[in-house]
Specification:
The complex is a heterodimer of chains A (441) and B (306). Chain A is mainly alpha-helical and 441 residues long. Chain A has helices at 11-15, 24-27, 50-54, 68-92, 106-128, 144-154, 156-183, 225-261, 263-277, 281-292, 297-311, 314-327, 331-338, 343-351, 356-379, 391-400, 407-434. In chain B, helix 6 crosses helix 10 (230-253) and helix 10 (230-253) runs antiparallel to helix 12. The chains are: A mainly alpha (441), B mainly alpha (306).
C-alpha cells in the first residue's frame, strides 16, 4: 500500500511545482506511436506542466489532497487483492479445503468478503471527503485521484458498474461456502440417484417443482447451477484479473524500456510490436491449449493465465511507451540521473509510477476482454475443465440442452453479460474520470 | 506508395513463416501425436507410420520439408479426413466462413454507421444514450450467449427460422449466424463512428461547408462521413482478428461446416497438416487485408503519406 508521503516516489514533490515556461518541445507528441493519443489533462499532477504542453492558458498550480492517493490504492488493493486472496487465502488461513474450491471453511468466504467490504468502506469516504479549509490541499485545489473520484460519481452508469462488479465479487467470494452451509451443495456435488432432484427455476417450473435449494435449477447431472455459476464467477474473474496482471507486467516493462531508451532500441522494439499485432494470436492460443492442456484442471488454469496474458500486452506496451516518452525529458528524471540512479531504477521507480493513470484505465478495460476470450476458449472446450467451471464452459454445457432446459445456458450467460457490461461501463467511466480530455465528447 | 506496398508485401512472407513455425513448434513440442490415441499400436505398425510420414527423421529435415511444401502451397493430406487434401478442405470450407463473415461485416457496417452517425448528430439526446447503451450491450454479451438466445426465440419458439446447419449460400439458415456474429462489430462500429463523427463535426471544414450553404444532408454525407469513418476503416484490421475468433464460436453454435469448426476439430484431433494449412491461410489473409486497409487509409486521408 502506498502512503501519500511515500519516499519511494521522490518525484511527487517535484510534480506539485508550478509549471515552468519552456519545455514544450520535449512534450510534443512527436514520435509517439499510433494508437490511443496521449493527451494532457487539466489539473493533472502527473505532468508537471500540462498547460504549457498543450498550449493552454490558465495556469493553475495543483496541490495534493491528503490521503486520497492512499484511499485510491486501498480501493485497488481491495479489488485486486481479494480476488486473489480468496483463492489462496485458504492456504493462508490454514483451512483444510483446497484452493479454488467452493467447499470447505464456511468462515473463509465470509471473512474475505467482510475484509473486502471493510477496506472498501475505509477507502470510499476518504475519497469523498473534501479537505477542510486550512488543511493541506484545501487552498491549492484538488488532486488527480479525488477529482477522478468525484467525476466518476457523477457518471451514473459507471457507479452502476462499480456496484454490480463489487456485488459480483462479494457473491463469488462468499457465495459458495454459504450455499454449502445451508444446502449442502458444492459446485461438483452430484447427488446419488435416489436423491437426484430435477429442479426448475421459478418461472419455468411445471407443477411447482421449484425448490429453494436450487434457485437457478440443476444441471443435467443434478448439480446445483447457482453454486456452479458462483464458482464460474470466481474463475472467470480470476482469469480476467491475473491475465491482465500478467499483461500489465509484460506491457509496462516492455513499453517503459522502449520509451526510455529510445533510438534504435525503441525502433526495433516497437517494430516487433507492430509485427505481433498482425498475428492471429487466438489461433496460436487455441493450438497451445489444445496441445499442452488437459493435464490437470489447475494446470490448465495456469496455462490460461499465461497464454491470455502473453497475448494482450501489446496495446499496454504502446500506452506506457507514449507516457514514458512524454515524461522522460523532465527535471525529475534529469535529477535522478544526475544523482546516479541506475536506469532500471529510473524506469520502474520514477517513470512508471507517474504513468499509471492511463495504465489503470486500460487495465480496467482489458479485464472484460480477457474474460471474454477465456469464455470463448472454455466454450470451445479448451479452457477451464470439469469439474471446475467458468461462465464459458457452463454456457457450452447449457447449449446442449437449450431446447429443454434453457436456463442452463441463460443463468451463466446473463450473469456473465451483466458482469462484462458493468466492467465495461466502469472502465469507460474511469477513463472519462481520470482522463477527461480522452472522453468521447 | 508503390515502394510502401512492396515493402509490406516483402515483410508479409517472413511473418507468415514465423506464425507457421510457431504453430509447428508448439505441435512438435507437445507430447504425443495424431497416432498416440487410446489404442496402443503394435511397434511394427508404429514404425511404418513414422516412416511414412517422415516422423523418424531429425526435426530440421521435417521442418524443411514442411516449409518447402508450404512454399509450394501443398499442405498435404489431412490425417483425419484421409482422402481429402488440406487444399480441398480449405476450398470446401472457405465459402461457408466467408459467406457468414462478409455478410456479418456488411450488416454491421450498415447498421453501425447509421446508428453511430445518428447518435453523433443528436448528441446527448435519448437516441444517443439508447444507441450507445445498446452498443455496450453488444460488446458485453458474448456471442455464445446471444446466438443460443436467438435460436431459442426465433427457431425453437416462433419457428420462423431454421436453428442450425448450413443450407447453401442464400438461404434462411444463414440469418441467425450472421446476426450473432455481427452484433459485436455493430457495437464497435457504432461507437467508433460516433466518436469519429463528433470530432469531425466540430472541425473547421465542416463549418466551412455549412457556411457555403450546403444542405445538412450534403454536409453529413459528403463531407463529414469521409473523415468520420476513418476510425472505422482502421478498425477493419483488428476486426479480422476478432472475426477469426468469432466465426469459430459461431460456426460451433450453429454447426456450420466452416473453417473455424474444422480448425477446432483439427486441434482436438491433432491433425497437423490441417492445422498448419488453416493457420498459414488465415495469416496470409489477415496480413493482406491489413495491407489493403492501410492503402485505403492513404486514399481516404490526405494527411497520410507513406
Amino acid at each position: 500500500m502506498k502512503d501519500e508521503r511515500n519516499p519511494q516516489v521522490p518525484t511527487e514533490e517535484g510534480r506539485s511545482q508550478p509549471p515552468l515556461a519552456d519545455g514544450a518541445p520535449a512534450l510534443t507528441t512527436r514520435g509517439t506511436p499510433p494508437g490511443p493519443p496521449i493527451r494532457r489533462r487539466e489539473g493533472d499532477e502527473i505532468h508537471p506542466f500540462p498547460e504549457t504542453a498543450v498550449g493552454e492558458g490558465d495556469v493553475r498550480p495543483v496541490g495534493r489532497g491528503r490521503g486520497d492517493a492512499a484511499a485510491f490504492w486501498a480501493l485497488l488493493v481491495a479489488e485486486v487483492g481479494f480476488i486473489l486472496g480468496v483463492f489462496y487465502g485458504h492456504h493462508l488461513l490454514g483451512a483444510l479445503a483446497a484452493p479454488l474450491q467452493g467447499r470447505g471453511n464456511f468462515w473463509n468466504g465470509l471473512v474475505a468478503a467482510a475484509l473486502f467490504l471493510l477496506l472498501y468502506f475505509f477507502a470510499v469516504p476518504r475519497l469523498r471527503r473534501r479537505p477542510a479549509p486550512g488543511e493541506a490541499g484545501a487552498a491549492e485545489g484538488t488532486s488527480l485521484w479525488r477529482d477522478a473520484w468525484r467525476r466518476l460519481q457523477k457518471n451514473k452508469l459507471a457507479v452502476f458498474g462499480l456496484i454490480v462488479v463489487n456485488l459480483t465479487i462479494v457473491a463469488a467470494v462468499a457465495g459458495p461456502s454459504i450455499i454449502q452451509r445451508y444446502t449442502g451443495y458444492t459446485y461438483d456435488y452430484i447427488p446419488p440417484e435416489s436423491e437426484l432432484i430435477r429442479s426448475f427455476p421459478p418461472l419455468t417450473a411445471p407443477g411447482g417443482s421449484f425448490s429453494w435449494t436450487h434457485p437457478m435449477g440443476t444441471d443435467s447431472e443434478g448439480r446445483d447451477i447457482l453454486a456452479r455459476v458462483l464458482l464460474g464467477g470466481r474463475i472467470s474473474l480470476m482469469v480476467g484479473v491475473i491475465s491482465t496482471f500478467v499483461s500489465l507486467i509484460i506491457g509496462i516493462t516492455y513499453g517503459a524500456t522502449a520509451g526510455y531508451l529510445g533510438g534504435k532500441v525503441d525502433d526495433v522494439m516497437m517494430r516487433v510490436v507492430d509485427v505481433l499485432y498482425a498475428i492471429p494470436y487466438m489461433m496460436i492460443v487455441i493450438v497451445l491449449l489444445a496441445f499442452f492442456g488437459g493435464q490437470s484442471p489447475l494446470g490448465q488454469l495456469f496455462l490460461l493465465f499465461a497464454a491470455l496474458g502473453a497475448v494482450s500486452w501489446l496495446t499496454m506496451a504502446r500506452i506506457v511507451r507514449g507516457q514514458v516518452m512524454s515524461l522522460k525529458n523532465q527535471e525529475f528524471v534529469l535529477a535522478a540521473r544526475a544523482t546516479g540512479v541506475s536506469t532500471p531504477k529510473i524506469i520502474f521507480r520514477h517513470l512508471v509510477p507517474n504513468a499509471l493513470g492511463p495504465v489503470i484505465v486500460y487495465a480496467t478495460l482489458t479485464i472484460p476482454s480477457v474474460m471474454l476470450q477465456e469464455a470463448f476458449l472454455s466454450f470451445l472446450g479448451l479452457g477451464v475443465q470439469a469439474p471446475l467451471a467458468s461462465w464459458g464452459s457452463l454456457a457450452s454445457q447449457g447449449i446442449q440442452n437449450i431446447a429443454v432446459f434453457p436456463w442452463q445456458l441463460i443463468f451463466p450467460g446473463v450473469t456473465m453479460a451483466l458482469t462484462l457490461f458493468s466492467l465495461n461501463f466502469l472502465g469507460d467511466g474511469l477513463r472519462d474520470a481520470l482522463d477527461p480530455q480522452m472522453r468521447k465528447f | 506508395m508503390f515502394r510502401f506496398i512492396l515493402r509490406r508485401l516483402i515483410v508479409t512472407v517472413p511473418m507468415v513463416l514465423i506464425v507457421v513455425t510457431l504453430t509447428w513448434g508448439l505441435i512438435r513440442l507437445a507430447p504425443g501425436n495424431f497416432y498416440s490415441g487410446e489404442k496402443k499400436l503394435p511397434p511394427a505398425i508404429e514404425k511404418n507410420i513414422r516412416e511414412k510420414y517422415g516422423l523418424d527423421r531429425p526435426w530440421y529435415v521435417q521442418y524443411g520439408r514442411m516449409m518447402s511444401n508450404i512454399v509450394r502451397l501443398d499442405f498435404g493430406n489431412s490425417l483425419k479426413y484421409e482422402t481429402e487434401s488440406v487444399n480441398d478442405i480449405l476450398r470446401r470450407t472457405l465459402p461457408v466462413s466467408a459467406a457468414i463473415g462478409v455478410c456479418a461485416y456488411l450488416l454491421a457496417l450498415a447498421v453501425g454507421v447509421t446508428m453511430g452517425t445518428l447518435a453523433a448528430l443528436r448528441q446527448n439526446s435519448k437516441l444517443d444514450y439508447a444507441s450507445m447503451a445498446l452498443a455496450m450491450l453488444g460488446i458485453s454479451v458474448p456471442n455464445f450467449v446471444l446466438g443460443p438466445i436467438l435460436v431459442l426465440v426465433f427457431a425453437l419458439s416462433l419457428y420462423w427460422l431454421p436453428p442450425a446447419r448450413w443450407g447453401g449460400f442464400p438461404s434462411w439458415n444463414i440469418v441467425l449466424p450472421v446476426l450473432t456474429l455481427s452484433a459485436v462489430y455493430m457495437a464497435y462500429i457504432a461507437r467508433l463512428t460516433r466518436s469519429g463523427m463528433l470530432e469531425v463535426l466540430r472541425s473547421d471544414y465542416i463549418r466551412t461547408a455549412r457556411a457555403k450553404g450546403l444542405s445538412e444532408r450534403d454536409v453529413v454525407i459528403r463531407h463529414a462521413l469521409r473523415g468520420g469513418l476513418l476510425p472505422v476503416v482502421s478498425f477493419t484490421g483488428p476486426a479480422l482478428a476478432l472475426l477469426v475468433a468469432g466465426t469459430v464460436v459461431t460456426e460451433r453454435i450453429f454447426a456450420m461446416p466452416g473453417l473455424g469448426n474444422y480448425f477446432i476439430n483439427a486441434n482436438l484431433n491433432r491433425d497437423e497438416p490441417l492445422i498448419i494449412g488453416i493457420v498459414a491461410f488465415i495469416s496470409v489473409m489477415i496480413l493482406l487485408f491489413n495491407l489493403l486497409v492501410d492503402i485505403a487509409y492513404a486514399f481516404l486521408d490526405p494527411r497520410i503519406r507513406y
